[in-house]
What does this fold into?
Amino acid sequence: MAQRVTRRNSNRDVKFIPVSDIPQDLSGPNRLPLLPGEPDPDAVFAQCLRAAREASGLTQQQLADQMTRAGYRMRQGTVSKIEAGDRPVWLGEAVNLARIVGVDLTDLTEPGNGERGELPVALAEVAGHQRNVEALEDVARRAQADADDAQVALDLARTHLDAARLRVEMIKRRTNPGEVTR
It folds into this structure.
C-alpha cells in the first residue's frame, strides 16, 4: 500500500497525494526538479563565472581577495569550489562576483555565456584591460609627479650652484683685485 500525504485545501476538502507523485530531487531539499533538457543553473553559473574571471585576467586568489574586501569572506579554494559547481552561491555573492569580473549578473546565469567569443566574456576582457589601464595611468601619474619633483630639485640645485659660483667669484676678486677670472 502506497504512503499518502494529506493536504488541506481551504478547510473544505482533503486531497490525498501519493508520496510517489511528490518530486524527489536529490541535489537539495528545496530545489525544484529540472525539466528535461534544462541546464543546471548552478553548473551554468560556475562555467560562466570561470570564463568571465579568466577573461578579466583575475586569478582565483585575486577574485577571493576582492570578494573579501567587498565583505564576503572568501578564499581561493572557495572560488575553486564555486567554479567546479561544488559550492552554491548566495545572491549577494553572485552580484559581487559579477561586478568584480565586469559582467552583468544575468551574463553568469544564461547557458552559453561561458563560451569564448560571447559578449559577456568580451565585456569581462574589457573590464580586465580597463583595470590594467587604470593601474598604468596611476603609475604614470606617480612617475610624472616624481619627474616634476625632480625638475624642481634640479632647478633649485642650479640656482644654488649659480649663487655659489658668484660668491666664489666675489671672494676671488676681493683677495686678488688685479687678477682677471674667466
